Amino acid sequence: MSKSMEKPCIMVVEDEFIVAQDLIASLTHMGYAVCAHADSGEKAIQQAEENQPDLVIMDIVLKGEMDGIQAAGQIHERFQIPVIFLTAFGNQALLDRAKSIEPFGYLIKPFNEGELHSALEIGLYKAAMEKKLRLSEKRFKAMAELLPTGILEIDHDFRITYMNSSAFKMLGVSQVQFEEGIDVRDFLQIEEHEFPLVDEHAEDRDEYGAPLLRLGKGPAEFRLQRKDGSSIEVIADSAVMPAGENKAVLRLGEESTRILVNLTDITQIKKLEFQLHQSQKMEAIGRLAGGIAHDFNNILYVILGYSELMMGNMAKNHPHYEGLREIFTASERARLLVKQLMAFGRKQVLNINWVDINQVIRDFEKLLGRVIGEDIELKIHLMQNPAVVKADITQIEQILMNLVVNARDAMPDGGTLTIQTGTVELDGSFASARSEVTPGDYIMIVVADTGTGMDKETIEKIFEPFFTTKSKEVGTGLGLSTVYGIIKQHDGHIDVYSEPGRGSVFKIYLPSFTEDVCIVESESAVPSKSMEGSATVLVVEDDPSVLRMTCKILVEKGYRVFEALNADDAVRRAQNYKGKLHLLLTDVIMPGMKGPEVYQRIREFHPETRALFMSGYTADVITRHGVLKEGLQFIQKPFSAKALLAKIEHLITESL
Ligand SMILES: Nc1ncnc2c1ncn2[C@@H]1O[C@H](COP(=O)(O)OP(=O)(O)OP(=O)(O)O)[C@@H](O)[C@H]1O
Ligand SMILES: [Mg+2]
After folding, report:
1. Residue 460 — left, alpha, or beta (φ > 0 → left; ψ -120 to 50 → alpha)?
2. Contact predicate 225/231, CB 8 Å
3. Which atom of ligand 1 is nearest the CA belonging to 453?
4. DSSP letter assigned to residue 178
5. Residue pair 647/325 in contact by the 8 Å Cβ criterion
6. Where does residue 78 rank: exposed (0-12), middle (13-18), buried (19+ CB within 10 A)?
7. For 126-135, 381-390, 529-538, which range has the lowest pLDDT when averaged over its residues?
């Protein structure tokens, strides 16, 4: 700024002493400062570097190696200092050569002060403009380099003429490749008529047959093929820099036309979007499946119970006995199906304990060997420390079994099945790449096979209930949906890696617990002595047919039974009963009071009473955590009369 307030500083390059003196005198007289004087091309360059003049007046013909045109060329290129040539009139060949370095003006000898003055003023003005332009260019370039989005400039031939550093990264291109020339269509890998910047519908085509471009086209979303073969998804906003002013429609064949493109990488967003969509879909199917399963549960319970009761009271040769048995077995099958659907719908009540996954796998090893047969090699690598999670052990066994059976089915000609445990910390970046994952420490269980593998389309569907590629006799398509539901209910996560012909890897992550914990061995349910018929049971259940049915089972076995259709009724009955109340058998979720609350109230009158909770349906209150308080006894509906009686007897005997 201060420099522009000062007198402009001029350098004079002239080898004839008299002419130089004359020129310097005129310049000084006109109010310019002459800051340097040189009499050869070499000296001129040196002086220009040292004194940084605002403008150079240069004689074209100089003594020595270098003439004025060469010297001016270097001064302009190296220091961006503008040059005005001094030349004798009429040497057209010299003038033509001088043009190549884009001089700021010519002074034809001889000249008067007026001519000198106007040539200098025009030269200085042009120099100031050029400086401004350079600054502005620098500013916009710096801005483009700062942008996280990729900026490209494309010429009329689809060649990329400019890229900012984000664009280099995005397209995976090196500087050398850029300098060799890049056609933007290489990244698009689509036909020219699909080129998103080209207006396909334009009827008007120019003489080269190139399609017309239109300004103001909205952003386009497409996939880019990077140089290394991988691909990214981008949104491209584009603008056409017109060849002439005020042109809305531009011709692609026109050389000065440039297209500016701004690329935003949305690969990660797309991925998350897809995952969110997948998990929302699973959530919806889960809710549907779980809901249906719940209603079926109560119906099945009644069918199972009555057929079991009737069979028990019937001679085996009774004409209806066979029919009843068929009803019973069919409902048993339905019960298993419903159970799987409930697991997928996360409607199972979990019996949560500290579980060492390593131990579960070790206990399972023998059974696994039998399941997979001899053609498949089993490799087990367990982490050294116990792999402790909070889980329902039978559910974990279920997960392993389902995965192993799938692996076996994928290796009909043999192969290797690997089961592995380890710890991993799922950090923020892992979590942010997946919806629904909370960062933290996890126990990882890997089940890998060397079988057929799966293509992308299959992988997308495997967790959906009833998706199967197996024949009807072999698969129902509920295996992995059960796995999915159970893992989600344990706040875990499952990942699949697979390619056709390359086997599959299933990775399960369950929240890990590093505190010292004691692992509770699962109890054996063998009662020491039979209490059948000598105990009192209060049954609370809001579904009348389920209540009737349950009481009937107990009464038949000789138990003394009180029934209650709701919580208040149950509390009243317990309060009025003065004898020993051995057991409370209650539904978990009822209108009004929940099962555990009923139990608490009853304990006020009967501290001796034990409780057995039953549930098929669990409202969200329970399923959100999926847990009844630890240590409480629970039986999952529907249950068979046998299972119920065994459980009740075990509890009553234990309490004595
Ligand atoms: N390890 C694996 N290798 C290859 N494909 C697999 C593997 N595991 C699952 N799949 C594919 O996923 C589908 C769904 O599996 P899922 O366990 O849910 O059902 P299923 O095995 O077909 O039947 P079900 O488990 O109910 O008997 C399978 O049919 C199969 O196509
Ligand atoms: Mg399966």
Report:
1. alpha
2. yes
3. 4
4. H
5. no
6. exposed
7. 529-538
In terms of pLDDT, which residue wins out, 382 or 433?
A: 382
Query: Domains of the chain by range and CATH?
Result: 2-143 (3.40.50.2300), 147-265 (3.30.450.20), 271-344 (1.10.287), 353-511 (3.30.565.10), 536-655 (3.40.50.2300)
Tokens linked to 9:
């500083």
Are 447 and 417 within 8 A, CB to CB?
Answer: yes
Cα(531) to centroid of ligand 1, in Å?
Answer: 46
| Ligand 1 in reach of 103 Cβ (< 6 A) | no
- Which residues, in sequence order, are bridge partners of residue 449? 417, 504
Residue 642, judged by CB atoms within 10 A of its CB (0-12, 13-18, 19+), counts as exposed
> What is the tens place of the pLDDT at every residue in 30-73?
989 998 999 999 999 999 999 999 999 999 888 888 888 899 98
| Nearest ligand by distance to the CA of 451 | 1
Say if strands 583-587 and 536-540 run parallel, antiparallel, or are unpaired: parallel
Q: Cβ atoms within 10 A of the Cβ of 178, count?
A: 16
Q: Is the CB of 458 under 6 A from ligand 1?
A: yes
Which two tokens mark 560?
């003394």
Question: Which tokens sit at 389?
Answer: 């999670």
Query: What SS3 state is found at 361?
Result: helix
Classify the C-alpha dihedral 283-289-291-297 as positive or negative: negative
Give the separation between CA 150 and CA 232, rounded to whole angstroms.
12
Which residues have a Cβ under 8 Å from the Cβ of 150 and sit 6 or more positions away?
A: 163, 164, 166, 167, 169, 170, 171, 234, 261, 262, 263, 264, 265
pLDDT tens digits, one per residue of 592-603: 778 888 888 999
For ligand 1, atom 7, which residue shows the shortest CA distance?
A: 406
Q: Decide if 56 contacts 48 (C-beta within 8 A).
A: yes
> How far is residue 264's CA from residue 60's CA, in Å, rounded to a whole number?
52
Return the DSSP state at 172: T
Distance of alpha carbon 328 from alpha carbon 119, whole angstroms: 111
Atom 11 of ligand 1, nearest CA residue: 462
Buried/exposed 16-35: b ≥16 CB within 10 Å, e otherwise: eeeebeebbebbeeeebebb
DSSP strand pairing (376-381 vs 415-426): parallel
For 39-44, the CB contacts below 8 A with 24+ separation are: 39/13, 39/14, 39/15, 39/63, 40/15, 40/64, 40/66, 41/13, 41/65, 41/66, 41/67, 41/68, 41/70, 41/71, 42/66, 42/71, 43/13, 44/11, 44/13, 44/71, 44/75
In 132-257, beta strands by DSSP E: 150-154, 160-163, 212-214, 220-225, 231-241, 249-251
Measured from the Cα of 480, ligand 1's closest atom is: 18
